[in-house]
Amino acid sequence: MTVVGLVALLLAAVAAVVVGHRDDRVPPLLGVAGSGVAWLCSVVVGALHWGANAAPTVTGSGRIETGGLPITVALRVDQLSASMVVLATTVALLVQVYSVAYLRGDPRYPSYTAIVSLFTAAMVLVVSADDLFVLLVGWEVMGVCSYILISHHWELEPARAGAVKAFLMTRLGDIGLLFGFFVIGGAAGTYRISGIVEAAAAGRISGHQATIGSLLMRCGVVGKSAQFPLHSWLPDAMPGPTPISALIHAATMVAAGVFLVARLLPVFALSDVAMTTLAVIACVTMLGSALFALAADDLKRVLAWSTVSQLSYMFAALTLGGYGAGVLHLLSHGAFKALLFLAAGSVIHAVGTQRLDGMGGLRASMPVTFVTMTVGYAALAGVPPFVGFFSKDEILGVASDQAFHGAHGRGWLVLVVGLVVAGLTAAYSTRAWLMTFFGPRRGDRTGVPPPEPGWLMLGPLVALSAASTLGGVVVVWPSFLGVEREGWHLGLVLVSLAVVALGAALAVAEWTRLGHMDPAASLGRLRPVLAREASYDALVDWTVVRPGRWLAGLTRLNEIEVVDRYAAAGDIGSQWGSRLVRWAHNGNAQRYLTAVVIGAVGVAVLVGVIGTGGPS
Amino acid sequence: MIGGLELLIGLPLLGAVAVLLLARREQLAAWVGVVVGTVTLAGAVVPWYSTIRDDGRFVARSDAGWIAALDVRWSLGLDALSAPLVVLTALLSWCCLVSLVRRAPVCGFRPGLVSLVLVIEAASIGTFAALDLIVFFVFFELVLIPMWFVIADWGDEEDPIGRRRAATRFLVVTVIGSALMLIGFVLLHVKTGTFDVIALRSLAPRIDHSTQVVIAAFFLFGFGAKVPMWPLHFWLPDAHSKAPTVGSVLLAGVLLKLGTYGLLRFWFELVPSGATTVAPYLGALGVVGIVYGALACLAQTDLKRLIAYSSVGHMGFVLLAVSTLTTQGRAAANFANVAHGVITGLLFFVVGAVKDRVGSTDLERIGAALYARAPRLAVIFAFGAVASLGLPGLAGFWGEMLAMLAAYSPADELSRPTYLTFMAVAGLGAVLTTAYFVVVIRRVCQGASEHDAVPDVEGDEWVAWSPLVAAVLVLGIFPVVMLWSASSSASAGGR
């Protein structure tokens, strides 16, 4: 079934490129049809593989001989894969439907829809692969698709720069990932993921190998999921069309990093060093990105930083062994973040800007967008009864269990930082919500209130807000995923609700005090620092980009001024040589003979010396 | 007796003569070239198919006395190592011949170029098929002369002096290289009394260690000049930038492979203990080439030179793979060889087409926004670039990934920490490779359109390029076509 879905997506992609330019109506149709078939397949896959005792399905067994361990072309679908496939294809289908209206009349629609289909297929491949290298194919194809989609508007400088940044940062991490695969595959004696997980469970991978392998793989995970220190590409990827942001942030690309750690958790768990490093990275990223989100003045940038921050929650849960909590938050985040981005797209479509100071007062003229986006923000902030509340509570529950009863200090770290960030999340969500929908309409010259978009765009919003509202049911009974829920932590729920309420209340209070102005103004001198995102880009520029350019310039100079000179000297040498030959070739037989004899003796001596001499 | 391989070598040679005889009727001559190329390509697939069937052995053998006084025998045969390279040669030659049907070279006489392409094809197939050191040497040298003419007489029309200098530089460096190689061959003969490669496989490894080291070092520099191995690469950018499109395609796609093939065939298989001593130096020069080539590309302002420097990097991966002395390294090297041939061949075709349209390969003069000015051309260029930077799922990935994997576990006699360092540096080089390709795509394909539109890909270009596009996809999605058996491309010597 997974294979049928993959084939449908690939066929749609090829067809859109080949025949898409003939008629404007064809590419949207192909995109929706391909994703629709893939979605139907995924529903069947889900129905077949969900449940506590569902057996995984393995498809394919083709072997690629490498002269060492073979690569196996095989797919394996279990509860986790099935859930991820359903999430990816659902969001992809909604994005395709939404794009029909959002990108109507775009001359680049055929390539756009083809790449979105390819992107979805790559994600499906990642989550269902049973071989590290098959996974890597999907992983990197997704990377190049995101590069193309971010630079969809390639005539604009920020789109080009953002695309290059995203691709290079993720590629840098992926080299680490590749080497990590070498280490883990070598240690386990197979590149099959199921085999590696078995080997880890059976203790056939030593702690030492697990540490090196996990730390290397972490590079790729950190790059793909935009964690510190490779976090800065994600906010810069915002010049891409908004539906693409929904796809990248919710169900694909950044989710792949979390998925990989969840998939190989038994390997990561062998190494305390790797887990602690990842936990520290997650906490640093979680806190930093929430602060950046508080000061960002671009709606999509706020959402981008919130994605980075929420991904950190998932990693934090996984480093504490909270497999269920991490994966459930991944699924719930997929639903509400897709909702938030698509709703943001609807706002941006209407007002024509991404800047928060160009919005405001939109709740009257865009009621559906207002209500659905409110649901999204509530889920993000962790307000009951929306899905984000339940999944975040799971994570904090795991953290408090580890903090009070576990052996590792990282439980406390995650618990404290997690609670602080829960408050910050509520604050920045409230701020963005107020700035978009309340107060006066800012930066408007027409005086006409922006209208609600059509139902092609609103439909996906309604569907996703339904999922975000009712998804809590799934989180509370997670047996479909093959995991058990640990139960409620009542005291913790009260504390976290209090923190969320405090964060939201502070934002509202400052908003009111400043007379319906940006509450971020109260950050004082911290605000410019956060708005510059702690000058991280400048740091990268000075430590990596400039030295790289300088080295490249030096190499070029060396080619021109040094290497070419010795080649030119060689030219002169060969000219002299040819003069010598011309002098020898003057018809004088004696000279010929002398030259031949000297040459022959020379070669004979050389061969003789080398051939017979020397110790053996 | 005339066997299949004699036909495969003889047919393009006869074709070359026929083309020259028909030279007055230019169009007909070009078509004759295509017909000969098609038949040769079809013929080249046959032995490749039988190497897959007869796992690891030599097929299409022919063996006859030739110059008895020098112990030289006319000995030909193909195995899993050489057969794919013969197919690659025939495929790239076919693409070149097709591209010459509608498009006359800017300067020089078209039938002459067609017949030289056929001669290069014949001589390259002969080199890959030779199983006698002297026969190998003869064919190896025979490739150079037509290539010298191609660069010197059909090259860059704006710079007659420069193209002649580039051609001569190429010739001199490779001839010096093959002189070193010949000394190695003679030494082998002195020690064993035969030039026969199959006999040498059992005889040569018994030569004493120090002689083996000397032979291995001669081979290293002899073949290294051809590959080209850093720092002997200096002839390459000039030769490429001055050569006509078909010259660049054959130079990168076929001629560079002669060097790496030579190392795979004669180096570790014949003088294993010498090669073991020399291998780390080869690996080091390989990875230096990877990073150096990438850095040179990053600051490059000429598209054709850029692709040329990228070849230095890609060949660095092949050298690294060869230097690991493992079966995996051999498989990697062979795969990367073929993949580089099709990808770089495609890139040179596209760059040649850009030059036909805007009259220059200078990035400044090409201008930006090729996606808008010639969308299909730009997309094919971007496709080639993405394949070249090693995207998994396209041809470039498997060879280079396996090269790094081979460096992760090199042969037992080699120092593992050294090779782990090589692997890490190669990985850095792979990131730099990505960097220069995205920078070039940003500069050439994307951007605001200020220049005029140019004609998009035309019918004959589709015909000439589509086999290469297909090959990039097939090798990438089904790498099993070259990695079908544990002993594929491993033949005897590897472990």
Write up what this structure looks like.
The complex is a heterodimer of chains A (616) and B (495). Chain A is built from 24 helices and two strands. Chain A has helices at 2-19, 26-49, 79-102, 109-128, 132-150, 157-188, 193-201, 207-224, 233-236, 242-251, 254-263, 265-268, 272-295, 299-319, 323-351, 367-381, 387-405, 410-437, 455-470, 472-476, 490-513, 526-531, 536-584, 589-612, and strands at residues 57-64, 71-77. Chain A has a two-stranded antiparallel sheet with strand order 1-2. In chain A, helix 10 (242-251) runs antiparallel to helix 15 (323-351) and helix 18 (410-437) runs parallel beside helix 21 (490-513). Chain B has 495 residues and is mostly helical. Chain B contains 19 helices and two strands. Chain B has a two-stranded antiparallel ribbon with strand order 1-2. In chain B, helix 3 packs antiparallel against helix 10 (245-267). The two termini of chain B are 36 Å apart.
User: Strand order across the biggest sheet of chain A?
Assistant: 1-2
Q: What is the radius of gyration of chain B computed over CA atoms, rounded to a whole number of angstroms?
A: 21 Å
Number of continuous helical runs of chain B: 19
How confident is the prediction overall: mean pLDDT of chain B? 87
Largest sheet of chain A: 2 strands, antiparallel
Low-confidence runs of chain A: none
Q: Helix count of chain A?
A: 24
Distance between the termini of chain A: 65 Å
Largest sheet of chain B: 2 strands, antiparallel
Helix content of chain B: over 70%
Shape descriptor of chain B reads: globular
Largest interface: A-B, 57 and 74 residues
Identify the quaternary structure here. Answer: heterodimer
Straight-line distance between termini of chain B: 36 Å
What do the pLDDT scores of chain A average to?
85
Q: Give the overall shape of chain A.
A: globular
The assigned structural class of chain A equals mainly alpha
Range of helix content of chain A: over 70%
Number of strands of chain B: 2
Order of helices and strands of chain B: HHEEHHHHHHHHHHHHHHHHH
Q: Compute the CA-based radius of gyration of chain A.
A: 29 Å
